[in-house]
Amino acid sequence: MTRRYSAWTLAKEGLRGHGGWQQAWRSPEPKSAYDAVIIGGGGHGLATAYYLAKNHGMRRVAVIEKAWLGGGNTGRNTTTIRSNYFYPESVALYDFALKLYEGLGRELNYNIMFSQRGVLTVAHSEGEMEIASRTVNAMQINGTDAELLTPAQAFDKAPLLNRDPRARYPVFGAVWQGRAGVARHDAVAWGYARAADGLGVDIIQDCEVTDFLVENGRCAGVETTRGTIRAGTVGLAVAGHSSVLAAKAGFRLPIQSYSLQAMVSEPVKPCLDTVVLYMGTGTYLFQSDKGEIVVGGGLDRVPSYAQRGNPPMQRTVLSGMLEMFPSFGQLKMLRQWAGNVDVVPDSSPLIGPSPLAGLYLNCGWGTGGFKSIPAGGWLLAHLMATGSHHAISRPFDLDRFVTGRLVDEAAGSGIAH
Amino acid sequence: MQLFTCPFCGPRDETEFQFATEAGKTRPEPAAEVSAERWAKYLYMKDNPKGPTREIWLHVTCGEFFALERDTVSHAVTGSMALGSDL
Question: Does A314 touch chain B (CB under 8 A)?
Fold first, then answer.
């Protein structure tokens, strides 16, 4: 049985030399059949397993991961959580995730280090301020928090911002979402894994799905490197590799894979206590709890599965950082990495039944997968358990590409994924 | 910085190029008989392969579209050719 973490157990173990901690989850051998199988042991897959057990009472559930937990995009992002979107469908989805994040540490009994330090999106001209106020209005109408800030208020949130009146991108004001923030990405995966394991979910690592088992036109399970596993229902949550798995299942998706890179600097003293994004440079950054400046930006321009990132975008992102914070010119960068993300033409995710009956999709999150983990898991679990959409996931069905009812957030909120 | 080869201009910096789409797509005709499903397939559905691929790129500098054969994992470029009837 999973041992509960608390200040009391921490103090007790501290006195005993921390010898009494158990493994946070088991590593069982795969069984030959489950009621539900989820492909992909990242945040979304683990959250799906947790909500299948928690919300729908399913006990024979397995998560199949080709490598190790959270080793894909869950471990390769910049951990920002926000819901500053334009369309009601999008705000309903991302704000649902944000609300679940707000109670997640307590729910999972795992410290995910969720810090609601706010996101400041800076505008640089009268025209961009009009876009900013349109975004704020949309967010408020859709029921999430948003505020339009003056330059003085923006400088108050981030005192080191470039104040030079001749700056290429001067500060004209900003959109502020105070409930947004950052969380510890590994802890989100580990917290869901531990909680799902506690509810009886089998988490099977180092096991790659090689093919789908199809009987009478329906997905009846998966072939893996550790044998055949039959399943009543199958969920796909593999982020950047969705097209590769879809090809094995015999269909195509409206997805192009790109690299999204990020970097961290050496740790420095506390100097920035919010997340800052410039509309002009596309660069965003925040300071981690360890003191590192975490910097990210737009997608690489070359479709890729390489997980490393090309130098031109690295230069764009870093020159953006210097424009925003000239005082960071002396920072030394420590690490650079890239995740492999699914990009969909309307920059919104794909959640719903796949063309193969019995197989359900949770993919296409583009650059926004981490912040959506609790919602993606909740909604995929709903689909797998009931066979039908939750009201929040319905607009994100694959059928929107045939009906033309796209949720175009690239145009709506200017979010470039 | 990677160099891509434009069939008209020779090797140039990757930032001069823009990805357009996968090669091998044929626009369904005649328009009046094309169903919404078939049109959606043509517009949106992709192979998006991991490994060798054949794509249409634009050399922004000269304004020409061309076919580029490359690998989406290693980023190695194996061929660059003007568009012809084989596409």
Answer: no
